[in-house]
Task: structure prediction
Amino acid sequence: MPDYFVEILGYVAATLTTASFLPQAILTIRTRDTDGLSLSMYSTFTLGVLCWLIYGIYLKNNVIIVANVITLFLAFLILSFKIYNTFFKKKA
Amino acid sequence: MPDYFVEILGYVAATLTTASFLPQAILTIRTRDTDGLSLSMYSTFTLGVLCWLIYGIYLKNNVIIVANVITLFLAFLILSFKIYNTFFKKKA
Result:
């Protein structure tokens, strides 16, 4: 398989896995409702995505870098809402 | 950074993102309850993980292969339950 085809396959993979995460991200960003989300799960996920990003930077692999920059941004945003709602929000 | 350290970082990344997916997978496999899951989201995710796996095989990157074989197995199992419950299960 030619190199550019492998790279395209990587971008298709990255687009699909990131796209599957988008509805949850959009819902949480719009509603700020994080009751249904697990703090430990999102902390683990966000840390994992950060490690993938650093891994991609060391490998100089653009597919891994682009995929994980976008996912890290979304995951970090959701995690921020979750931490705020869990520890700082005044109970109604 | 030495090569083996980069590979360890990759495995840490893979372990964290796969671990964050495990509670959902275990819950669904135990309860077979997929009402809270989105069919389109899981189809997109499973297809994306499959593409990542093929991408990893072409790159001969063991970290990407191992991470995505495990995630693909879990995602495919959950997707199978979702498809069965959506299209084949008799309504009570």
